[in-house]
Design a protein that fits this description.
This protein is an alpha/beta fold. It folds into three domains: about 70 residues, Winged helix-like DNA-binding domain superfamily/Winged helix DNA-binding domain (Arc Repressor Mutant, subunit A); about 110 residues, Rossmann fold (3-Layer(aba) Sandwich), CATH 3.40.50; about 140 residues, Rossmann fold (3-Layer(aba) Sandwich). Helices cover about 40% and strands about 15% of the residues. The strands form three sheets. A six-stranded mixed β-sheet has the order 9-8-10-11-12-13. α8 links the parallel β5 and β6. It starts with a helix and ends in a 7-residue tail after the last strand.
Length: about 350
């Protein structure tokens, strides 16, 4: 009998919390407004003061309200449905262990606006429904504890779930303009501008023959690279375009063979298009006896400020990740404003020590 009563009290508490939360989100109780007293709420919902107190405590834990001693309970000045955002990493492994980019983004979320009211919470390893990580995110969504969601990629596998379909929450995916489910806007990283920044760095240093080492080189990517090279008067060759497996030994060997002194017309520039490849690729250049930057210019992808190690001087071209996260949050806070593509940044080798 006690268990039945406890369940009934729990349901009533949740119903009160839900009702008050809805009124806060809808603006009936705006930020800074004093809530009715516990006694008034108890009469309204026809429950005990203790049950009402537990409901208010739930909202306090969720940061919708704050209690001021002897003054009462007030809606928080910066409630979560207006100031807290979710960064959702759609993969089965922790973000910081899989990709340097997503690790940098998670770091940026942890350090986001330390002196401001906005917060970004990381939801890691959200893959499919009915997993602990997914259920946790869903609770935040349906309880309106988030002002918006940023997805690491297009969340197509979650299209018909509350995480994507629950109304009233703006959503962004860091992806190409096509392929997003309805209601999710793309934040495009300007790949063409990234390539042009890299080719400009080669051209400014008098280089012409460019090799590329990347994780995955499909026909579309290869064509974009060729177009960018052409704009700057640069050339490449199919045997200079390599996509080794994601392991240090083949990456190192690939770079070493590409720049072997036995080649009569070897490349004079190397573009490393994945920052996870930078350390082993530049290690291969050292093993091949290549003089950098005297004989070869290296341009390496980067996710600022989380630079991977390079064994040679390298121009870094890539994304300012904290600025990217800020752009995503700003876009969510202004959902009716068009979202421009995010532009890359460059850093010269001597800047790394600054």
């Amino acid at each position: 009998m006690s268990s039945i009563n406890d369940d009934a009290v729990s349901l009533k508490r949740s119903a009160i919390a839900d009702s008050l939360r809805r009124q806060i989100v809808s603006g009936v109780f705006p930020p800074g407004m004093k809530l009715p007293s516990r006694e008034e709420l108890s009469r309204e919902f026809q429950v005990s003061v203790d049950t009402t107190q537990r409901a208010v405590q739930e909202l306090k834990r969720q940061r919708f309200v704050t209690a001021k001693r002897r003054a009462g309970t007030f809606v928080a000045q910066h409630p979560p449905h207006l100031f807290h955002y979710g960064l959702v990493y759609l993969a089965g492994e922790p973000a910081r262990e899989v990709s340097n980019f997503w690790g940098a983004l998670a770091d940026a979320a942890d350090a986001f606006e330390p002196d401001g009211p906005r917060r970004v919470r990381v939801f890691d390893q959200v893959v499919v429904e009915q997993t602990e990580s997914y259920e946790r995110l869903k609770r935040y969504v349906v309880n309106r504890r988030l002002a918006g969601l940023i997805f690491s990629t297009a969340p197509n596998q979650l299209t018909n779930t509350p995480v994507v379909a629950f109304p009233g929450i703006p959503r962004i995916a860091i992806t190409q303009p096509i392929g997003c489910p309805p209601g999710v806007k793309p934040m495009e990283l300007s790949e063409s501008k990234l390539f042009d920044a890299a080719m400009s760095a080669f051209a400014q240093r008098g280089r012409r023959r460019i090799a590329v080492i990347s994780f995955g080189l499909n026909a579309t990517l290869t064509e974009k690279l060729a177009q960018s090279m052409s704009r700057f008067g640069l050339v490449s060759h199919p045997r200079w375009l390599h996509a080794p497996v994601f392991h240090s030994v083949p990456i190192r060997n690939c770079a070493s063979i590409l720049f072997s002194e036995h080649q009569e017309h070897r490349p004079d520039g190397l573009l490393i298009l994945d920052d996870n490849f930078v350390e082993p690729a530049t290690e291969g250049l050292v093993a091949a006896g290549v003089r950098v930057p005297d004989d070869v210019t290296v341009v390496a992808h980067a996710n600022f400020p989380r630079l991977t190690r390079s064994h040679v001087p390298a121009v870094r071209v890539g994304w300012n990740v904290p600025a990217l996260l800020s752009s995503c949050v700003d876009a969510l806070a202004n959902p009716n404003t068009p979202i421009p593509s995010f532009q890359p940044e460059s850093r010269q080798p001597e800047e790394e020590s600054l």
